UniProtKB/TrEMBL annotation:
Reaction(s) the record says it catalyses: alpha-D-glucose 6-phosphate = beta-D-glucose 6-phosphate
GO term, biological process aspect, one: carbohydrate metabolic process
Organism: Enterovibrio norvegicus FF-454
GO molecular function, one term: glucose-6-phosphate 1-epimerase activity
Designated name of the protein: Putative glucose-6-phosphate 1-epimerase
Protein's UniProt keywords contain Isomerase: yes
EC number: 5.1.3.15
């Protein structure tokens, strides 16, 4: 995504503007260190490109940007649960409108803060009072942090994921390493070598991954380091041919240039008492 080409609707500072992209409002960062974009719909990171380097984040060319359904690609915020633990799948945060809370900047980079709080609509789905904050820290690296706070009186259980789609040159040449000795696939625990390549659909929950996972991208002549905190798993996903072709918001060959490496609490195992908070984060650097 060429974020510099998006039409500007408001200038917030030297480095931060509000733009329109089809039916969604986007906070755009153009800084000497990097460019980036995050949608207010879903607090969804759409782009991060360090200066002089290739785009890091993959977006589907067929993504629905109407603001009526979850966006394919980028970094969806799966919250307050991951997967099909409840309805809607991956929670309601990724299809909710977030508010721009704050933006800060200096010569090293830009920080964007978006927030989401409970409403009658969210309480009908999940009966809890909460404040969720998404921090996007843009320098020559990208750090995304999801801070969940229990603002109610009763304890609440949460899970979730920062469902990062990475832009890669060729999935058949790509490997992901430092994934630990075990993964869950189809509900079954299996031993792991700690590495994986891609020659078929991969949908695995790695429960003992290192804090930093490495993605080798030889076609683009780079390594992507993904450092996760506050998680209990790293999810690795590529839909491969059949699933990619079956999805209306992905091109048939989309699987060839993306891989998901996700910082996740896959099992809703985080318990927050009244007033407590939890931070789930991922930091991406291109080497």
């Amino acid at each position: 995504m060429d974020v510099k080409q998006l039409p500007t609707t408001a200038v917030l500072s030297d480095y931060v503007t509000i733009c329109e992209l089809d039916g969604i409002k986007v906070v755009r960062v153009i800084h000497p260190k990097a460019t980036a974009a995050i949608s207010l719909f879903g607090a969804h990171v759409l782009s991060f490109q360090p200066s002089g380097k290739k785009e890091t984040i993959w977006m589907s060319e067929k993504a629905d940007l109407s603001g009526t359904k979850a966006i394919r690609g980028g970094i969806p915020v799966c919250w307050p649960w991951f997967g099909k633990a409840a309805e809607p799948s991956h929670g309601f945060a990724r299809s909710s409108e977030w508010a721009l809370n704050e933006h800060r900047e200096n010569e090293e980079g830009v920080i964007i803060s978006l927030t989401l709080t409970d409403t009658a609509e969210t309480r009908a789905i999940w009966p809890h009072a909460f404040r969720a904050e998404l921090l996007m820290e843009v320098t020559d690296t990208l750090k995304v942090s999801l801070i969940s706070t229990n603002t109610g009186d009763a304890p609440m259980q949460i899970g979730g994921a920062l469902h990062t789609y990475l832009n890669i040159g060729d999935v058949t040449e790509t490997t992901v390493s430092q994934l630990g000795n075990e993964y869950i696939e189809g509900g079954i625990r299996k031993p792991s070598s700690g590495n994986t390549g891609f020659d078929q659909e991969v949908d695995r929950i790695y429960t003992h991954a290192n804090e930093t996972v490495m993605v080798e991208d030889p076609r683009f002549q780079r390594r992507l380091a993904v450092t996760n905190q506050g998680n209990n798993a790293v999810v690795v996903w590529n839909p491969w041919k059949a699933l990619s072709a079956s999805m209306g918001d992905m091109a048939d060959d989309s699987y060839e240039t993306m891989v998901c490496v996700e910082s996740a609490v896959y099992d809703r195992s985080v318990k927050l008492e009244a007033g407590e908070n939890h931070t789930l984060s991922t930091l991406i650097s291109s080497q």
